[in-house]
Amino acid sequence: MGIVKFLYLASRTARMKSSRRKFIKLAGISALSSLAGAEIVYGSKLPSGLMPVILDQEDPYKTIAKDKGLTILNDRPWNVETPPHLLDDDITPADKLFIRNNGIPPAEVDISNWTLTINGESAINSRSFTIAELKKSFPNYTYQLTIECGGNGRSEFNPPAKGNQWTTGAVGCPEWTGVRLKDVLESVGINSDAVYIGYYGADTHISGDPTKVPISRGVPIAKAMQNESLIAWAMNGKDLPIMNGFPLRLVFGGWPASTSGKWLQSIAIRNVVHDGPKMGGQSYRVPCTPVSPGSTVADEDMCIIESMPVKSITSYPKSGATIQLGRRLAVRGHCWAGEYKVAKMEVSIDFGASWQACELSNPRNRFAWQHWNTVLDFPKRGYYEVWAKATDDQDNSQPMVVPGWNPRGYLNNATHRIAIKVV
Ligand SMILES: Nc1nc2c(c(=O)[nH]1)N[C@H]1C(S)=C(S)[C@@H](COP(=O)(O)O)O[C@H]1N2
Ligand SMILES: [Mo]
């Protein structure tokens, strides 16, 4: 098991190559034969450290352990999104959860020696925990929590915003198991001047510079102290996938997923707003007041994104589906609203001129996405679009056009549209 993970980590970097060599030493020729799918007949003559070329031409989806239907936007670092029809499950399976990496994941993880350190100016004591200690020292909880990248939907902004051109798929809602962040923070003691927490992970900077940290973000103490804010080691009852933070990560449901630190090694309790890389400047921030598209906005006029906005997807049918005239079409999907709950879900087949209410489920727990469904009738043959619109319990609705342009293209919660042909 550990060895397989090792192989999955193999990628195009020199450092990965060295881990691959270690793998060869560990695995031996019979294991390589089974991976190659045939006996390596002259295996005993294979120079030590040389990878059979068939194993070198890896399937990228095997490398990242994700479903082949996902879309790879970038492989250095890995950024991979999920088409809406593959987000149809109520609980997102591990191989269908998007990947958003800012750096290079750790090449080797030794789970029994992994430690999480709690420190910082506002920590009364500093302490390190092994994963086994975390598991047994604090009550374990499981919550279904929605994580969505702040840049999900970026590809629709005009003028375009730099960054990964996410369409709709940088979101998912698996079930996470771990301990409450607040229990762990309280065990070391939180000083009354604490305002924020900041995470540090074991991933390394894309430049290879060991002094640089790819990302280190966090949340205000109030968010950290919510019951659902987890230090998680499992997704859907299994170890976290490597690309999603194995062996330990933070999960803050409903907030930009950039706050959910992966490969988690330390958490600082801060007496200031955390100032790690990608907390300041233009990163994960939007203009404090709306600006016209294409504007340049000074750093001091940008505000940190907190709760994500109300949003929904149609996960069935797949966009482009065809239906016979006279047949009724069952449609369904999910909706979420950051810190809030979705109160109403509607769909339109006439480009938003009229709306029909949908059936809407309650979330499994706070910050879990909700499911919606309805049945549609089409009056005649032709092309239609199904538009889905959620409204939260604060009466915020999804806009029909791309909302508030901002320099980095965050927070696009426009209605999801799918195409339907009636024949
Ligand atoms: N250590 C670390 N944590 C991280 C990141 C990262 O690059 N390194 N990316 C963040 C961002 S921007 C997002 S959107 C989420 C993505 O989580 P996922 O890859 O598990 O879907 O992880 C966050 N946590
Ligand atoms: Mo993100």
- Give the spatial strand order of the biggest sheet: 5-4-15-10-11
Shape: globular
Q: Roughly what fraction of the amino acids lie in strands? A: 25-35%
Unreliable spans: 1-19
Instruction: Compute the average pLDDT.
Output: 92
The CATH superfamily label of the largest domain reads Oxidoreductase, molybdopterin-binding domain
Structural class estimated from helices and strands:
alpha+beta
Write the CATH architecture name of the largest domain: Alpha-Beta Complex
**Overall domain count:** 3
Task: Kindly state the percentage of residues in helix.
Answer: 10-25%
Structure overview:
The protein has 423 residues and is of the alpha+beta class. The chain folds into three domains: 1-58, no CATH class; 94-304, Oxidoreductase, molybdopterin-binding domain (Sulfite Oxidase, Chain A, domain 2, Alpha-Beta Complex), CATH 3.90.420.10; 311-422, Sandwich (Immunoglobulin-like), CATH 2.60.40.650. Helix content is 14%, strand content 29%. It has helices at 2-9, 14-36, 53-56, 60-64, 131-137, 181-188, 221-224, and strands spanning 71-75, 78-81, 99-100, 115-119, 127-130, 140-144, 147-148, 171-172, 175-180, 196-201, 218-220, 230-235, 238-239, 249-251, 264-270, 285-287, 302-304, 311-316, 321-323, 329-336, 342-348, 356-357, 359-360, 370-376, 382-392, 416-422. A five-stranded mixed beta sheet has the order 5-4-15-10-11. β1 (71-75) and β2 (78-81) form a beta hairpin. α1 packs across α2 (14-36). The longest helix is centred in the N-terminal third of the chain and has 23 residues, at 14-36. The radius of gyration is 23 Å and the shape is globular. Residues 1-19 have low confidence and may be disordered. Molybdenum atom binds next to loops.
